[in-house]
Amino acid sequence: MSYAESLKLIEQLECAELAQQRFIEGVISFEDYLDILELCEVDIDDYLITVEDNLAVNEIVV
Residue 62: what pLDDT? Predict the structure, then answer.
């Protein structure tokens, strides 16, 4: 991975983490959170499957 690619990844991760914090705080909606993740080049379908799996494993949803 090049230096430029590393910087881009760091920026994407920082953006995604900030969006997550704002969502948890109730500042932005879930839809806005997902839109920001898409801008950070997160595969939303894979992300939502992972979230659902994690919730099921922890018996938060069935």
Answer: 62
pTM of the model: 0.77
Structure tokens at 5: 């690619």
* Residue of 41, 40, 19, 39 whose CA lies nearest to 30: 19
At 15, phi and psi to the nearest 5? -65, -45
pLDDT, average across residues 22-40? 96
What distance in Å separates the CA atoms of residue 18 and residue 44, rounded to the nearest whole number? 17
What is the rounded CA–CA span in Å between residue 7 and residue 23? 24
CA distance 59 to 29: 24
